[in-house]
Design brief:
Blueprint lengths: L2 H33 L6 E7 L14 E7 L11 H4 L32 H4 L5 E6 L15 E10 L7 E16 L15 E6 L1 H13 L1 E6 L13 E2 H5 L3 H51 L28 E8 L2 E8 L3
Antiparallel strand pairs: 1-2, 3-6, 4-5, 4-7, 5-6, 5-8, 9-10
Length: 344
């Protein structure tokens, strides 16, 4: 092996060892700098020491204070547990709060206030319940805190054609406050419910109340971060198949004619069945009468009494010939008659 090659290998090893030593020195300095207390002003903040659920009461054993940068304290945070628990009566959690999560004023009730749905409502908002089922309620996958769109399905009668059905997006990005009687946002198991309570303003509350009697309400679950509204349009039966209103009217008319023909045929079959049933009943009555007659014992007529037979004898008597006869004699063209005695 040449000397130059050996020298290059030795230099590469020296430089490699030197790079590792320098990297370790730099990392040690960085760890030491991070371990030193910061010169930034510090403050304290109250966080949850244990997981809190909706309705849990707050106490000292469920809270603790931790250091926090003074310039980054969240709005509504409490510096000490004493400040948080100040006031007469206990405070309760209005939503799920995790361990070491800051306890904010918007997540708890006031002193002595119950953790009810009214305490969760935002300023100027109302809570309105919508009746749903396993389909309209998105199969039970709607939970408190989700955002949904409210759809209205209606059927309007038309004087110049068939009834028109359509679907409108009534409200968008509506916050769900509770499902049935559960308002805990930590709920994560799907459950088929009968009612969903949403948070809306006064006008939207009027819309929902009116729409509940005008048609069928259903929910469409939105993406968790999809709170922006979007342009919507009415969807009709024509949009499902691409047919024009005239095509729909013709098809409906044909269905009506077929329905009328089926009804007439059913009525004719009913009349024929009634006749057959009448004949069967008549035959059954005749058969029952024959059976009744066959059960009656025959009566024997009394023997005829002998009667005297009277015979009549008719005798023919020839009448006697007349004693005189009339004779006519023509004399030229003149007839003369003579009454003369009859010869025996």
């Amino acid at each position: 092996m040449r000397a130059n090659t050996v020298i290059m290998i030795i230099l590469a090893g020296v430089f490699g060892v030197l790079a590792v030593v320098l990297a370790n020195i730099w990392l040690a300095n960085q760890r030491s700098a991070m371990a030193k207390p910061s010169d930034l002003p510090r403050d304290t903040i109250v966080v949850a020491a244990v997981p809190l659920k909706f309705g849990d009461s707050l106490s000292d054993d469920k809270l603790r204070e931790i250091p926090w940068p003074a310039g980054a304290v969240p709005a509504g945070a409490f510096k000490t547990s004493k400040d948080l628990l100040a006031g007469e009566g206990t405070k309760q959690a209005l939503q799920a709060i995790g361990v070491n999560e800051p306890v904010l004023a918007t997540k708890i009730t006031g002193p002595g206030q119950r953790a009810t749905l009214s305490a969760v409502l935002s300023e100027g908002m109302k809570a309105v319940s919508i009746r749903v089922n396993d389909v309209l309620g998105v199969a039970g996958f709607v939970f408190p805190g989700d955002r949904v769109d409210v759809l209205l399905t209606r059927t309007v009668r038309s004087s110049d054609g068939p009834d028109k059905s359509f679907v409108d997006v009534l409200l968008q990005s509506v916050k769900v406050l509770a499902v049935d009687q559960v308002a805990d946002e930590s709920k994560d198991s799907p459950t088929v419910v009968k009612a969903v309570t949403v948070e809306v303003n006064t006008k939207d509350a009027q819309k929902l109340t009116l729409a509940a009697g005008a048609g069928q309400l259903s929910l469409a679950l939105r993406q968790a971060a999809g709170n922006k509204g979007e342009s919507t349009e009415r969807v009709t039966l024509a949009d499902l198949t691409g047919d024009t209103p005239e095509d729909v009217a013709k098809r409906q008319a044909e269905l009506d004619r077929q329905k009328a023909a089926d009804a007439a045929a059913a009525e004719e079959r009913k009349r024929a069945d009634d006749k057959i049933n009448g004949l069967a009943q008549a035959v059954e009555r005749v058969g029952s009468q024959i059976d009744q007659l066959s059960k009656v014992k025959p009566t024997v007529a009394p023997a005829p009494q002998p009667q005297e037979v009277i015979k009549e004898v008719v005798k023919y008597v020839q009448p006697a010939p007349p004693a005189r006869a009339t004779i006519g004699v023509f004399r030229g063209v003149k007839l003369e008659t003579y009454d003369v005695p009859r010869q025996r």
